[in-house]
Amino acid sequence: MADNYLAQIQDRFRSIHSLVIDVADVHTKNGNGITAVTKIHEKARRDDKITVANKQKLKNLYATTISEAEGEEQLIRKALEKVYEIRSIKNDRRIQAKSSGNKETIRRGALMKALQTSAQTLPLWIGKPGEKPPPLCGSIAPDANYVSKFGDMVAALQRSPEGDENWILAEVVSYNGSTQKYEVDDIDEEQKERLALSKRRVTPLPLMRANPETDPDALYPKDTIVMALYPQTTCFYKAVVNVPPLFHNDEYEVLFEDSSYSEGFSPPLKVAQRYVIAIRDKKTIK
Prior knowledge:
Layout: H1 2-47, H2 52-99, H3 108-120, E1 153-159, E2 165-176, E3 181-186, E4 195-198, E5 202-204, E6 225-229, E7 235-243, E8 252-256, E9 269-271, E10 276-278
Helix pairs in contact: 1-2
């Protein structure tokens, strides 16, 4: 099992290495084409005219440069796919170990760091020109019939023995289509009994990050009321977006509802895209 796992990872790394070399070669060629285009334009400005021969040369250079840029894009996308495959293989191995009863006890600090790393390395949506972000990218809602998969992170509405209800970070174990119920594990307390919850009480987390520079509509704007994972905890609470992400690696700045402050809200706190989701009214959830 371990040998197969390492072989799969090494195979992807070799593919990435090869693709990165190809990207560098194509990028150099494309740079030469752009330099040639620039020189013709500079000559045309100096002469205040452009010859018929240079017009044709420009057309050919533009066609070649565009083709090479598209080729470079495809190579980069293939490399990213290999990175995502490595992420998936590592997650599958963790899930298999968990299913076989090999539950590793994780200290609180290590768990918080792992959750942060998971959010930072969530795939970034990079669409083609005119392509819209898919469901579960940033703030884009899932399809109505969407079912979270085994191992997916979700927000689960848990009822305590005292009757209190809280949204907790959980991991999907299974889904029963007949009863429309999930089995989930509290991410913070794996040794506890699993929770059986109706689909209404489970909210999928984003599967991809949205890029604010290209897809700002896939992010919650300022003053949107959301649910967000409170820093250094595994619980979601009501919050207001104070500043949305401005760049692809930015987090949200949110204000958590908190009656202990005179303003009724906490000071601004940073929360990763993965852990900011649409607000759900507990009263309407059975």
